[in-house]
Amino acid sequence: MNNHLRTALQLAAEGLPVLPLRKGKVPFANCRACLYTSCGGRPHMKTPGPCTCPAPCHGWAAATTDSAVINSPAWARAWRAAAAVAYHPGGAGFTVVDCDNADAIAWARETLPATRTVPTTRGEHWLYLGMMPSANGVRPGVDIKSTMAYARWLGSGTGTMAALPDVVRALTAAKPAAPVPVRVPAPAGGGVCRHRTPAYLERGITMAEQRITEARSAVHATVYRTFLAVLSTHGRCGCLADTHVARLFTAAQTKGESPRHCTDAWNNARTTLGL
After folding, report:
1. Cβ(123)–Cβ(98) under 8 Å?
2. b/e code 61-98 from CB counts within 10 Å (16+ = b)
């Protein structure tokens, strides 16, 4: 039994729905049978249920506390290739405030009530009892992970988990209107990134939004192909920011795609490109 599987079983026994993550901290891609389906809940449902596929498909919707599923042959390949264990916070009845940098941590310490905290690679997870809708970029360096989302397991942390405060709930209604500045670091190897001109990236995202918006049929396929095109051009240089991804997801949801389908299509495109 590998360490990730052992950890997953321990967490599941404590009531925490778990799933494997591959390299890059992303879920395993959907299997062929589940690609572009509504497995795990119909698109119009606000809270789709667990994925019914025997493989660990559909990101957060695959999370489970069932040891038989976690130990099943269908999950065995994923555990052997897994880079980390993730869990579904909303499925366990709590919320993670993901503070991704020192400034975000400073804000949390000044603004939020004390609760259990878990160190991350670049910041901290602040855990609160209670569920709420998940959202990225609610303020600079801060994401909310609760329902219909997953978080990487990084240990139990320290402190006692407090009740989810109103100040956190209010964050999803107080997203900053101004876009986050585009960060365009040079690619590995010291080459010149052709996307350093913001206009180049902006044209690409605008064209992608237009392609999705103008789709009259085969919306699923159009969204996937558009995500694939964006990632093939802009996905390897660090040019894409959360605001760009949010624009693409918004365009897709306007055409009737669910947030989960957007996430699935994005993850599948990343997998296809080896990102």
Report:
1. yes
2. bbbbbeeebbeeeebeebbeebebbbbbbbbbebbbbb
* Dihedral pair phi/psi, residue 247, rounded to 5°: -65, -40
Confidence (pTM): 0.62
| Contact partners, residue 196, CB within 8 Å, separation at least 6 | 184, 186
Rounded-to-integer distance, Cα 266 and Cα 271, Å: 9
Residue 50 pLDDT grade (very low, low, confident, very high; cuts 50, 70, 90): low
Answer for the pair 137, 171: CB distance below 8 angstroms, yes or no. Answer: no
The pLDDT tens digits for 172-182 are 874 444 433 33
Q: Cβ atoms within 10 A of the Cβ of 247, count?
A: 17
Question: Rounded to 5 degrees, what are φ and ψ at 133?
Answer: -65, 140
Nearest to 19 by CA among 34, 37, 30, 4: 4
Alpha carbon 130 to chain centroid, angstroms: 19
Q: Looking at residue 233, what DSSP letter applies?
A: H
Closest by CA to 92, choosing from 28, 151, 173, is 151
Per residue in 13-34, pLDDT (tens digit) is 999 999 999 888 888 877 776 6
- pLDDT per residue over 206-216, tens digit each? 888 888 888 77
Enclosing H/E stretch for 107 = helix 102-111
Amino acid at 265: A
Percentages (nearest 5) of helix, strand, coil residues in the chain: 40, 15, 45
Could you please report the per-residue DSSP string of 1-59?
--HHHHHHHHHHHTT--EEEEETTTEEPPPPTTTTTS-TTS-TT-SS-----SSSS-SG
- In the predicted model, what is the mean pLDDT of residues 63-84? 92
pLDDT, residue 172, reads 84
**Distance of alpha carbon 232 from alpha carbon 41, whole angstroms:** 30
